[in-house]
Sequence to fold (346 residues):
Amino acid sequence: GHLHNSEAFNYGVETWEAYKRGGLSKDLVEEQKKVQEADLLIFQFPLFWFSMPAILKGWMDRVLVQGFAYDLSKAYDGGLLQDKLSLFSFTTGGSQEMYSNEGISGDIRYVLWPMQHGIMHFCGVKVLEPHICYAPENVSEEKRKEMLTAWTQRLKTLWKEEPIDCSPEWYFK
Amino acid sequence: GHLHNSEAFNYGVETWEAYKRGGLSKDLVEEQKKVQEADLLIFQFPLFWFSMPAILKGWMDRVLVQGFAYDLSKAYDGGLLQDKLSLFSFTTGGSQEMYSNEGISGDIRYVLWPMQHGIMHFCGVKVLEPHICYAPENVSEEKRKEMLTAWTQRLKTLWKEEPIDCSPEWYFK
Fold:
């Protein structure tokens, strides 16, 4: 559609305005509908460079627009996607030891902060304990099967879990 | 080209093998050539969701492949892109106060960790002090001009700067 302000292009403002007038592209509207209807968002991905693969980051960038996911003074505990849960479930290349507090990669919680706090908490979405499978490439077939079984088991009682603490203390203490 | 292992597709292995046999797509080879020739990589972007916009994350995901940027036991101080410098220069939506240690977004250094440590340091690239313009949308025209002037000034003496400390202490202490 037309630009709200074609003299000074601002991506955030344009998507916000497009959202308000129902002018976002169809694929985004469909994704937003899925988010709106969901009680729980599970993001499953391989960790690439301490973060989500670009295609999933692009989903965050494009779908969670102002007006839909947050708004002026409506962020963090006041975010627009309240009463929803999220869960980051991912595999890593590095070992658990590398992602320990004394490990060379640094505590895995440092990796979780931008995703869990910076994105989900910002939108008002609560976060369940992340589900991390360390280095499935480098473990035995038996261990890989155990990882799948553990995930299957966890899914069965997921609805009974309480969200984790959203404060910086959870991540950096 | 053909897959190295078509029975169990592994993105990391395939790009690594493609790199070794010179089979990466042309655009990636060109980007890698630019990186190889550069002494300093400046990444300039608007901060989206505590991180790079997806298109820049995709550049990291696709260009910095194993064999080129790092290898088995060749990561962090042993990374393959040594003797290079990098600098993350970005604008934010949130104010400096929000990104202070006591701010609601949390210390801006938590945002820097995955990019500076998780990507650049992993590849052996040293990191200069980041250049951050906070909330240019919400400041006066005069302030915006000052931001540009400050950046111009900094660029003049950039080659005299020393890299920052790469340790977790820089980020989390």
About this structure: The beta strands of chain B are 40-46, 85-91, 126-127, 131-133. Chain B is about 40% helix and 10% strand. Residues 39-172 of chain B form a domain with the Rossmann fold fold (CATH 3.40.50.360). Chain B has a mean pLDDT of 95.
